[in-house]
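## retry 2 of 3
previous attempt timed out at serialization; input unchanged, resubmitting
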Amino acid sequence: MNNTTIETLQNHRSIRKFKKKQLSNNQIEEIIRSAQQASTSSYVMAYSIIGITKPKIKEELSLVSGQSYVKENGHFLVFCADLHRVYSQASIQDQEKMIASLESTEQFIVATVDASLAAQNAVIAAESMGLGACYIGSLRNNINKVNDLLELPDYVIPLFGLALGYPDEEPELKPRLPMEIIYHENQYNTNQNGKVAEFDEKLKDYYQSRSTNKRYDTWTNQMIRKYSHPVRLDVGPFVKNKNMNRS
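## retry succeeded, writing output
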């Protein structure tokens, strides 16, 4: 099938090393406009995107994340769940009626999904221009500091960053779980252990044969290590202190 969109999607890889070249204003605008055309629940558009142009803020965010490519890229974005815009447009009387809904888990999910859909649109737009991208969830390593750096009001949560730029590396395409593990028909299929074991062997081969950072590992072992050590336990209280996900 000769379809450039599908080719772009199926050749996605995270880029962590960028050339020292900034994106043009036109490129940034096209990426943001593409992000804005993502699907949104009930036309709320419950997200905001913050472009980081001040070197000092980039440096601080890089220290929070522990990743050098947060400051060394063509442009850096922070995607936020945002219900403040809705709240701030209402009268005081209407705000009082809206609080129970705004503070609900449902609306927190809506805002998080809206932001994530917009971000993925931004990545696809960037990659269609020949640019690279990498999501930065590690901004949540110190979510309070990020909140203060970006001066975020109540009802706004910094979810993740997105580093964009001209790739200065070409990493191998990393295997994904087989489609039959991800895609279920009609009911959830819990009988997946055999397929996961097969994927573990495939991933082990990938790690041992790739050109850099070779190691002996499997997907299952990675997940056991990851979920055996809880991290960022301050995020839950932080979200509630921002008057979101409280009920």
